[in-house]
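Thread: "does anyone have the structure for this chain?"

Original post by V.I.:
We have the sequence but no experimental structure in hand. Need at least a predicted one for the grant figures.
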Amino acid sequence: MSKEEFLGSLNRLLKSLGKSEREKSLSYYNEIIDDYMEDGYTEEQAVEQIGNPGLIAQEILEEQQSQMKAPMSRGTKVLVAVLLVLGFPLWGSLMLAGFCIVLSAVLLVLSAYIVIWCIPLCTGAASVAGLILSVVSMGGAAVIVFQNSAAGVIQLGVGMLSAGIFILTGLLTWVLGKYFVKVTASFSKWLAGAVTRIRRKNV
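Reply from O.Q.:
Generated one for you, tokens below.
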């Protein structure tokens, strides 16, 4: 293998390195080959003395990775800690602002769900109230009618009116509930799509 072929192969195998690091390694092995040739080796023999470019590239890449994974020195850790403390007014306020924005978004979403379900909840409450009032009024009318017939009839009328309110509001709650389930599902689907679009933009 010629020097040019060796260096070209090594250059391709070290493509994942930065340009400066790659050129540094190529220059180093170029000088070694030249040194061997000055000692009387032919170009092919000098390349053979260095070894396989694949193994050399593997060693260089492993060394580079080990350097990248090297832990921070104590001085660096102290410097980072000092910078974090000194910069707390800035990054702390930014974190607080971000938290407030997220909290506001969550409360806004909850408010939207509350507004959506406000009407069926109100009609449902009216239906329950009508049911309770009708049961109490009709039950009381059965007792009062023997003591005061006029009051008993009025009490019975109130109970029947309450029963009618219970039936009407119950039906209205059922219809509105089905409708607002669809509205909630559509809103949730739109919200999920909006969140997905925001994530894609940030990636």
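V.I.: this helps a lot. The radius of gyration is 41 Å.
O.Q.: and The longest helix spans residues 88-144.
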